[in-house]
Amino acid sequence: MAQGASMPPARVVPEDDDAQAVGHEPCGVLRQVVAACVYPELLGGLDLPEGAQRRARRVLREMDAGNIGGYNHEHRSLLVPARVARFLERRDGGVPSDPRNIIVCSGTASILPFVFSLVVDESAALPTAVLVPVPGPRLLVAAAELAGAAVVPYPLAEERGWDVDGDTVRWALREARARGHPKVLCVVNPGDPTGHVLSRESMESIIRLVAEENLLLLADEVQQERAFLRDRPFLSFKRVLWEMGPPLVSTVQLVSFYSLSKSVAGESGFRAGFLELVNVEEGVVLPFHVAQSIPRPCVLGRILLDLLMDPPEEGDPVQQALEEHRQVLLHSLAHNSRLLQELLGRAPGICCHPVQGGSRAFPRIQLPPRALRRAQELGLEPDVFFCRELLEATGIALAPGSEFGQPEGTHHVGISLLPPPGKLTQILLALTRFHAAFLLRFS
Amino acid sequence: MAQGASMPPARVVPEDDDAQAVGHEPCGVLRQVVAACVYPELLGGLDLPEGAQRRARRVLREMDAGNIGGYNHEHRSLLVPARVARFLERRDGGVPSDPRNIIVCSGTASILPFVFSLVVDESAALPTAVLVPVPGPRLLVAAAELAGAAVVPYPLAEERGWDVDGDTVRWALREARARGHPKVLCVVNPGDPTGHVLSRESMESIIRLVAEENLLLLADEVQQERAFLRDRPFLSFKRVLWEMGPPLVSTVQLVSFYSLSKSVAGESGFRAGFLELVNVEEGVVLPFHVAQSIPRPCVLGRILLDLLMDPPEEGDPVQQALEEHRQVLLHSLAHNSRLLQELLGRAPGICCHPVQGGSRAFPRIQLPPRALRRAQELGLEPDVFFCRELLEATGIALAPGSEFGQPEGTHHVGISLLPPPGKLTQILLALTRFHAAFLLRFS
Questions:
Q1: Looking at the complex, does the CB of residue A269 fall below 8 Å from at least one CB of chain B?
Q2: Which residue in B227, B187, B222, B224 sits closest to B207, CA to CA?
């Protein structure tokens, strides 16, 4: 691995995309099933409802020796992947999914360096280049660097609601060729921290681009269950690729990520997720199945994941509770997104594109020249300076835009969409008031 | 990372060091605490005893928003490491332990490549060499190769009960220097699959050797809670190093591993463990704390780990149940080890050193020349051939010695120490009968 891989900068704000830490309730029935699996003596008792007990019995029947305490390799490597594949087929309107191409892992963060390491050739004279969106999750950059890749940023089109612009990507590709051998294009959809959801047209043009340029498309689709607009639903790259038909459908290499943390259950603590490999050559698929070093999820994370994959079943209480949970989550995201538009839309010097999905908004904030000079004197990025002052004045911690990268000369803050509406209103009002005062102070 | 890292061979036998999969009961009270943390509505109910509920309340108070559903970074990075450090100080008779040097991880398998990657320099002209014991866990080899190291085996001294022999290690070091730059000596104690426990004298000579040769000592001590002989207790390398005093105590670099899977709880499914870094330079410690890509354990694995770290407390039911669980485990291991000696000791052509700890015995089995030729015709290692024939004839699956490596020209099988005694007796009787018939058949 590359030495001196760059580390994420110190955060001003705790994980604000961590649903339950910012106040979301867990989905009770899922927790009931897991609790019964942990301590099966609860089965037959009075504390857990019958529906959850029935489901837990099914889970335990699938465990080695009927017990979650062993490695339970088959559960991870065969049983859950088969259920995930059926789930993806339903999600994608019938596009077939092969369980052998589903890798159950302990979340995106720890599997990403392994994925990159299979593509990066550290012994080659030219470094392997990986293209990442800016703004985008810092994690992609850290993992690619850890695997020894040269990271080449491509800017998202803020003026078009953070869409991916083909010409910009091609321009970045030329840059990448100057520095190395470009092999991977990372796309984040729904966007993080940008909160955009890609249209089918954008996705098709990205797919054509990776096909022409012979790139692997790494689709960070972990926020897929947080797209809340009826007229901009989440579409998977796999589905769009499938619907584009031959020849692309059988040639474009795609890796897509799903995470329990960003799922409707929002269970970050359980550390589980999966990735699906599409058109990826056998030599790359094999290591995922046999390498002992791949971070494997805890059996309880897998059980939760498995519960989320269940097909809808009339009258099943676990399903029903999960569906209600989903509706509450989507409703709350949509409501918060309207709040953002209302409260930031009328603030001078703040501009926020309508959010379509995901966990964050990424409004642009105007910082006056005198504030930029003051930040420079302090040796701080201007947005970090702004966020620190905000924190000191109001107690509110927002993520400075430089943590995710931002277009040259612009400044942004990341705002979580996940807090309860009352809390978010407080945050937004404090931000707009503080920003107005900040403009005056440095005018 | 190195391309084409070697993969573990297909196993003839499932994970026979997986306590609960081979029939060990989970420690009920630990499961009760975890279940209550998963579904806190159980608190105050009738299904869980009061002691477990009290302990669960304490755990939940330490969670962000009182809920296990978030990332709970502080729990992992501050709270559990502090408790682990106190645990290690008690284990080592007061040798101080600094929480900053404790890294909580999701088990040994997934953190090992990261550890090696911090030591291996892939851009150097000479490959970094890592010395591993033979026989030893295949995992060490796979992880070192994945990180791009040149793996150099050093044989354990079978004739001295699989002790580590300093002269042999020095001989291997010369070999390592011919192939690269040796930086790491891996030692497994209690041994796996060999079941030996190192004496203080052996450990002191290993420590002097790594000091002289300027190697990092990587101590796989995951089986530490399975040393069952009163007169050969497990001693940690850290303690022995400490007791050797200056100058070694402040210069020898040591990394030691602990695993929930091999702990007294034997909870492999929960994927948690930790490592302690001793005298390791700041530049190597830092990435463990900040790299986002380190596989982090599920919150429930951390909770279990935390419970195991608790100091003994008079009258605490959780502690008491755990202590009983420990006594049952050690008694069963000691009993099984005696069974092995009795039943294999009188079998001609089978030789087994007394087991002192760990999860396996590794008896040597004589295979007649005609059997070796037959195996060669079939393209199989002789011990794999033997194990396959055994499996077909008796339904009993043992691990062929070649999976762990073995001295040139010798053949062994790995036998789990963990099954219930009745089951182990069956296995051993079937093995000795089959082996006698096998000797006849190929004589």
A1: yes
A2: B187
